Amino acid sequence: MSLSKKVFKPFFLLAFALLFSNCSSNKYAATNKTYKHMAKDFAANIKAFPPNGQTIDSLNNEQSFVGSINMGMRKPNYVIIHHTAQNSTDETLRTFTIARTAVSAHYVIGRDGKVVQMVNDFLRAQHAGLGKWGTVTDMNSISIGIELDNNGTTDPWPDAQINSLCSLLATLKKKYGIPTANFIGHADYAPSRKPDPHNFPWKTLAKRGFGLWYDDVLQMPPADFDTTAALRIIGYDVKNLGAAIIAFKRHFVGTDLTPTLTDPDKLILYNLYKKYM
Q1: Total structural domains in the chain?
Q2: Positions marked catalytic
Q3: For 16-29, what is the mean pLDDT?
Q4: CA 208 – CA 165 distance, rounded (Å)
Q5: In terms of residue numbers, what domain contains 14?
């Protein structure tokens, strides 16, 4: 074997090993590839002229298509905050990249403040599920889902994580014009099913413009104050009134998570009700 071949063979093996190492070091390479294929299919469907699969059969061929120039990308109008109820960011990333789980989020924020984006803001992540907020019953279609790495029981909320969250929320609010009142928790939207985020610093977020909060000085509500109607006006689904009350108290009171409104709870509810009207 010539000297050049002797030199080339180890070089080739080294290059192959480095290439294999780089590929294998990204444990999400396969799901990233699938994501790209899915996004490509979505783009092809959007570009189709006329749109694919949007002919209404009952019109009996009386339908045509004329493209309007007055259009744009659909944008999110809500942000839903979750806790992962898992033990690490890596565990959550694995969960959100397994097809059978059928769940995802736009962003995952670790305890250390590191932010991982998993779904394009303009695409529909599967994070909110069944629920209702005001008249919205398909929150996935109009919201950004943010999962915070937290086991949902004993974990604290580190400053690094909350600071990263607030930075992300500031960007989303400005970019998409999301109203201040439209930053809510999973439990607010799905009170009968979900408790997250648990023991969350909502007041801290509200002070920075992400969600509403009650005033320091509270007025007594009138004698005929309808607490159920007030909860409904804020956005809660009162079909299961007890669950709605617990969700309200979880977000705005933080203690005594029982399905009964105390007099202090009613003071808070009345103040917030007037803000949401």
Answers
A1: 2
A2: 147
A3: 61
A4: 11
A5: 3-59
